[in-house]
Amino acid sequence: MVMAMSLSLGLLSSSILPPETHTATFMRPSHSASSSGLRMVRTVTSCTVSHSDQGTRKIRGIMKPSKVTPEMAAIVGVKEIARTQALKRIWAYIKDNNLQDPEDKRTINCDEKLKKVFEGRDRVGMLDVARLISPHFLKSES
Predict the structure, then answer these.
(1) What is the residue range of the signal peptide feature (predicted)?
(2) Structural domain containing residue 90
């Protein structure tokens, strides 16, 4: 009796029970038995975990490395990079060179390298950065 009650309440740990007795128990109120206070019990006897093959997926979209213009390569340091990584490196460049406006951190004060990438602008909003770097990613032949 005590063993059955412990199993239904989940009180025994997996170190005590053999693997074939591992079950999960869920309790749900029954609509027909609600007046008598009885509950229905549903037991899940096995579960499986699906594993996806991450290694076989082809990299596409903004995660795919693309060739960049020489102006962009001067900032990010490589000639071919994914858009996500380029954006990270541009923000690292901005922070390393202290180019954010001290009063409004959402505004970037461009130096000469950034002006070449950001259409010659002196100041750029942080939300404009992703749009302004887009023309610097060259189309691939394939």
Answers:
(1) 1-23
(2) 61-136
Kindly state whether residues 91 and 118 are assigned to the same domain: yes
Work out how many domains the chain is built from and give that number.
Answer: 2
Q: What does the pLDDT average to over 3-10?
A: 54
Nearest to 90 by CA among 47, 13, 40, 81: 81
Nearest alpha carbon to residue 66 among 88, 86, 82 = 82
Q: Do 114 and 99 contact (CB within 8 A), yes or no?
A: yes
51 within some domain: no
Tokens, residue 74: 């001067």
User: Would the pTM count as exceeding 0.85?
Assistant: no
CA dist 52 and 11 (Å) reads 34
Rounded CA separation 69/82 (Å): 13
Burial of 111 (0-12, 13-18, 19+ CB in 10 A): middle
54 within a domain of the structure (yes/no): no
